[in-house]
């Protein structure tokens, strides 16, 4: 039984995203008091007020999932856009995470990932 190339591409993209997110939030963490923890395919952001944003990869669904105070969101990779897009709204995952983090810390973060 061979390895599914779609799964390999997904895991590669998801892992890269998680690593970039973790590094970007680490850079902001000292100024904005955000703790970031990565465990396998899950990145958890914990804020000073105790609220959390959880980002995880779902290989079977080929999706990135985000759980936040405002709800749950699912993202799929779009080759044309070159981005993870919300399966309902079409919004870019990076823009949504930046907005969600801003809502938690009270300022628009300069989040580059």
CATH H-level superfamily: Frataxin/CyaY
Percent of sequence in beta strands: 25-35%
CATH topology, by name, is: Metal Transport, Frataxin, Chain A
Order of helices and strands: HEEEEEEH
Indicate the structural class.
Answer: alpha+beta
Which keywords apply here?
single chain; 113 residues; alpha+beta; Metal Transport, Frataxin, Chain A; six-stranded antiparallel β-sheet; 2 helices; globular
What does this 3D model show about the protein?
With 113 residues, the protein is an alpha+beta fold. The chain has a single domain, classed as Metal Transport, Frataxin, Chain A (2-Layer Sandwich). The protein has helices spanning 5-32, 93-105; strands at 34-39, 42-47, 52-58, 63-68, 71-78, 83-86. A hairpin with a 4-residue loop joins strand 3 (52-58) and strand 4. It is globular and about 40 Å long. The model has no long low-confidence stretch (mean pLDDT 92).
Topology:
Blueprint: H1 5-32, E1 34-39, E2 42-47, E3 52-58, E4 63-68, E5 71-78, E6 83-86, H2 93-105
Antiparallel strand pairs: 1-2, 2-3, 3-4, 4-5, 5-6
Question: Would you kindly provide a brief summary of this structure?
Answer:
The chain has 113 residues and is an alpha+beta fold. It contains two helices and six strands; from the N terminus they run αββββββα. Strands 1-2-3-4-5-6 form a six-stranded antiparallel beta sheet, covered by helices on one side.
